[in-house]
Amino acid sequence: MQSDVQDLSLVQPGWQRIHWADGEMPVLRLIRERFARERPLAGLRIGACLHVTTETANLMRTLQSGGATLALCASNPLSTQDDVAAALVEHVHLPVFARRGEDRETYYRHIDQVLATRPNVTMDDGADLVSVLHGAHVELLGDVVAGTEETTTGVIRLRSMARAGALRYPIVAVNDAMTKHLFDNRYGTGQSAIDGLIRATNLLIAGRTLTVAGYGNCGRGVAMRARGFGAQVVVTEVDAIRALEAHMDGYRVMPMEEAARISDVLLTVTGDTSVIRREHFEVMKDRAIIGNVGHFNVEIDLPALADLAVERRTVRPYVDEYRLADGRRVYVLAEGRLLNLAAAEGHPAAVMDMSFANQALTLEYLARHGQRLSPDVYPVPPEIDRQVAALKLRAEGIAVDTLTEQQEQYLRSWEEGT
After folding, report:
1. What are residue 252's phi and psi, to 5 degrees?
2. pLDDT, tens digit, for every residue of 65-98?
3. 269 within 8 A of 214, measured Cβ to Cβ
4. pTM exceeds 0.85
5. 322, 24 Cβ separation under 8 angstroms
6. Strand 252-253's sheet: what is its strand order?
7. DSSP strand pairing (319-324 vs 309-316)
């Protein structure tokens, strides 16, 4: 079995951490037990480009229990947990192509190695696998029946491909499931982003001015957790409705040019490019800290910052100091890459339990129905979303009410009024 991981001597701690995460993922365990009995994914070759973490490892175990053949590479050069990659190779017998800190050439070589297994279903987190498949390996497209996409950035890219007529097979936007984006994006990103900030800097957040760029579900989570730590939170937005929502939620809302002047910490959470740019660096406070929680490292214009700087040095793990000509220092976290995965461990397993339950059940759906779908980006079927929510409540020991026959009849009727 071909693989490329950093250090196979890390197998034991990786396997222990995978099992620890599994204890926080009861929904995925319930699905794994059923998959082992029913084998709904038998015959599927799945090529996955995901963050190689303990939670992803438990998703891989679940899909393998369902009968799938798998190959896995990293969806970000700094998100791989090398001990987990080693454990997947040794204990799960999974072809893994991922090394923490891999360079750009290695990153794309690993994607090529996953595609060389000729998958008929793709799993992506950011759409790099799909992009490479459609660009450099079009000869393999005939094998592919369908795919899934895990994150907001990837869904944006895929919808652009669909609008341009470039997308050649159907993909389900797992990111947009209610049980994914309301919980993973908000509570997972909120906690893990602040976790990454603290691990990288050991910063006291209370009393600091912290700007969150973007008030989507991820930005809401980061703002909420930062306020919980005592920060004075500023939100920047380009969308009027989201800006108004942030204002009504009690945050200060202003343009980035104003926020850059007063902020101690600035975190980008937009999925867009050049959110913090040269004109913002030029007015920042001395010792301002910048981090990115969006998928790609383009939200902070690092070439512009490097051009302004007279010196750059690493002052702590995952903290680079850029000294400007006037003596001000700007600190960039995790090379502008995903702060919560580069400097911390990503989302808590209990949150990823729902996200990856959606992945597993969506792959089961695609195994049955994928060949009947035309190339486009599709939502997660509502029944899967409801099933994940019900399983999570069951696992948490939470019961909910059910409608009475009278209530159901009332909701179906129109006659009764005031």
Report:
1. -80, 135
2. 999 999 999 999 999 999 999 999 999 999 999 9
3. yes
4. yes
5. no
6. 252-253, 232-236, 209-213, 265-268, 288-292, 329-333, 319-324, 309-316
7. antiparallel
**pLDDT tier at 399, thresholds 50, 70, 90:** very high
Q: Give SS3 for 300.
A: strand
> Side chain identity at 172, as an amino acid letter?
V
Q: Which residue has the higher pLDDT, 180 or 74?
A: 74
- 55: Cβ contacts below 8 Å, ≥ 6 apart: 21, 25, 346, 347, 349, 352, 353, 356
For every residue of 317-367, DSSP letters joined together read TTEEEEEETTS-EEEEEGGGSBHHHHSS--S-HHHHHHHHHHHHHHHHHHH
Give the integer Cα–Cα distance in Å for 74 and 7: 16
- Residue 341 in contact with residue 349, Cβ under 8 Å? no
What six digits make up the tokens of 284? 């920042």
Distances (CA, A) of 32 to 62, 237, 329, 368: 5, 41, 50, 18
Residue with tokens 């009861």: 26
Q: Which residue has the tokens 């080693």?
A: 86
| CB of 74 closer than 8 Å to CB of 51 | yes
Structure tokens at 408: 């159901």
Those residues whose C-beta lies under 8 Å from the C-beta of residue 27, and which sit 6 or more positions away, are 353, 354, 357, 388, 391, 392, 395
175 neighbors 154 (Cβ within 8 angstroms): yes
Q: How confident is the model at residue 295 (pLDDT cuts 50, 70, 90)?
A: confident
Length of the chain: 418
**Alpha-carbon torsion (386, 388, 393, 397), positive or negative:** positive
AA letter at 121: V
Pairwise CA distance, residues 125 & 106, whole Å: 18
Helices 349-369 & 382-396, crossing angle to 10 degrees? 140
φ, ψ of residue 7 in degrees (nearest 5):
-160, 105
Inter-axis angle of helices 11-22 and 82-91, to 10 degrees? 90
Q: What is the pLDDT of residues 225-267, one digit of tens each?
A: 999 999 999 999 999 999 999 999 999 999 999 999 999 999 9
Task: Please report which helix (H) or strand (E) contains residue 232, including its range.
Answer: strand 232-236
The 146-149 sheet, strands edge to edge: 4-5, 96-98, 69-74, 45-50, 121-124, 146-149, 171-173, 377-379
Q: Rounded to 5 degrees, what angle do the CA atoms 169, 295, 54 make?
A: 90
